[in-house]
Prior knowledge:
This protein has strands at about 5, 10, 20-25, 35-40, 45-50, 55-60, 65-70, 75-80, 90-100, 100-105, 110-115. It is an all-beta fold.
Amino acid sequence: QVQLVESGGGLVQPGGSLRLSCAASGILFSIYTMNWYRQAPGKQRELVAQISKTFNTYYTNSVKGRFTISRDNAKNTAYLQMNSLKPEDTARYYCNAPVPGHDYWGQGTQVTVSS
């Protein structure tokens, strides 16, 4: 069965960095687009970053220049490098694989940016 497991979240000071990981199993990882979403309490879930099977990337405007999405197909893992973190980045971050006919999600990892 398909499983996505996020890790790497935690508490960080403003201006700090974190690297999130999404380990995938049960799918042909290399052929699918991978997304990172985030959701803060009381807010809608939003798409943060996306990387295609051809390594094309997309970022929402608020994180451009600060976040970098990447993937290592040999390790079946997607990453989100987050630099220059701001308090407004505080949210639970979710890995998503929009496989045709099946929308897979991880359990999320919490990121809190606070001094």
